[in-house]
Amino acid sequence: MRSTETALSSAFNPPESKKQPVSNLQNLAVIEILLVEDSPSDAELTIETFSESKILNRIHVAEDGVEALDFLLKRGKYKEAPRPDLILLDLNLPKKNGREVLTEIKTHPELQTIPVVVLTTSDAEEDILRSYQLHANCYITKPVDFEQFTKIVKLISDFWFAAVRLPPTPS
User: Domains in the chain: how many in total?
Assistant: First the structure.
């Protein structure tokens, strides 16, 4: 697991207890993102693209489904892990696949309100249908082209952090 804070200022790191809504430059919050991705190149490209975002974000990368659930459920070395504001989930993962991870997220009372974006190479209709049946918030097929992939990640950032109001963290 690795974490990367990006955008606006890599030196700006407010304490977790000071997390507030993003509304202006005096009132910034770090958007926590869990990227569940086993491809190091896709993970690096996603991190790099988010670093160009106007939103201060911290990306945590889980390389398999088991690690993702350990992070989300604060097990083992992740006891102090923050609750993500958004999860980017690949379907084709080692140890526990993305469908299994999505099922556990959307059936867990403390996790089910976290938006999950399925970001995967599969464009199979059965994967799309199954992901929505499991309550994915959206399904995006990763383009193989570098420029298109970058555009998609920017669109994710713009939509989820500029247009959408994210659910509050449960008390």
Answer: 1
In whole angstroms, give the CA distance from residue 144 to residue 107. Answer: 32
Structure tokens given for 55: 């939103």
Q: Which residues of 52-86 are buried (b: 16+ CB within 10 A; e: fewer)?
A: ebebbbbbbbbbbbbbbbbbbbeeeebeebbbbbb
Per DSSP, 25 falls in state T
Provide the residue range defining the domain that includes 148: 2-9+20-163
Per the CB < 8 A criterion, the answer to whether 62 and 40 are in contact is no
DSSP labels, 72-116: HTT-GGGTTPPPPSEEEE-SS-SSS-HHHHHHHHHHSTTTTTS-E
Residue 15 forms part of a structural domain: no
Query: What global pTM score does this model have?
Result: 0.79
**pLDDT tens figures, 74-126:** 999 999 999 999 999 999 999 999 999 999 999 999 999 999 999 888 889 99
Question: Residue 29 corresponds to which tokens in the numbers above?
Answer: 């919050």
Q: Residue 116 in contact with residue 137, Cβ under 8 Å? A: yes
34: in domain: yes
> What's the CATH number where 103 sits?
3.40.50.2300
